[in-house]
Amino acid sequence: MRTLVLLAIVGFLAQLVDGSLGMAYGVTSTTLLLLIGTNPAAASATVHLAEIGTTLASGVAHWRLGNVDWKVVRRIALPGAIGAFSGATFLSWLSTEVAAPVMSGILLALGVYILVRFTAWGMPTRNLGKPLRKRFLTPLGLVGGFVDATGGGGWGPVGTPALLASGRIEPRKVVGSIDTSEFIIALSASIGFLIGLGAGGVNFTWAAVLLVSGVAAAPLAAWIVRKFPPRVLGSAVGGVIILTNTRTILNAELITLPGVAQTVVYALIWLAWAGAVAWSVRAHLADRAAAAAEPVPGSAPEAPDAEAARS
């Protein structure tokens, strides 16, 4: 019973983060399952089965709030499904522990780029509104789907940074489109795991608990992403990517550091992240004040005589 309560709390918080930042549900949930002794394939299979429901609820919530770019969803979901099915069947008989830290290094570089870009320059508008091409979205979907299935999560960490870095759609629609398309990825991965592992490889009780708690959090997460200023959201997403993938790399022991040095690294990341978000909030408030001070288009300035007559 204690394990089920813990799963429910993690499922709620994971979906709250995933629905508002476009990532981290699978990573968070899978990590917990691995900590309690579940093998990687079974953990990923259980999480993806739960994600069929959570991503559907999240997608509907984002759609109702206008957070979805359906052209992006259509172009990225099919290759993502192919990648997820391939990754699920592959993980059923082979571990991908070596590939995970390598991909984390790529994601870490993207996270630094996004954090700096949004913090320093705000919402990218130069390419905003231009369509994303299939030659970009197709390989992105294939890689994201494969990583998601083999790593127990990764659709958001791969897709969200890449779409944000393109600067062609606003952050809230990046999050909404990634979350909505993830339903197809979760469904495809689940089919692959059921074929590779059989029904005995999935803990359906745990999947149900993760599903119910995640569905409960989905509407709140969709509301949060709509209310978040794009500049602040971009800085927040960049920090999550950096922190998450730094931890993966250090845990994989690609870089051997003593415990004190690791603590210093994490502290510096937290300080830089907090400073970036604070700077973005300050810049957003300044931009909003400047916009409020601008005259309304079409309204003529008041004549000096009229002002003097009232004084």
Automatic annotation (TrEMBL):
Keyword set, alphabetical order: Cell membrane, Membrane, Transmembrane, Transmembrane helix
GO cellular component: plasma membrane
InterPro entries cross-referenced by the UniProt entry: TM_pro_TauE-like (IPR002781), TSUP/Inactive_protease-like (IPR051598)
Claim: Transmembrane helix is one of the keywords in the record: yes
Pfam families hit by this protein: TauE
Membrane spanning stretches: 76-94, 100-120, 183-200, 206-225, 232-250, 256-279
UniProt-annotated location(s): Cell membrane; Membrane
Membrane topology: Multi-pass membrane protein
Family to which this protein belongs: Belongs to the 4-toluene sulfonate uptake permease (TSUP) (TC 2.A.102) family.
Protein name: Probable membrane transporter protein
Species for this entry: Nocardiopsis composta
Lineage of the species this protein comes from: Bacteria, Bacillati, Actinomycetota, Actinomycetes, Streptosporangiales
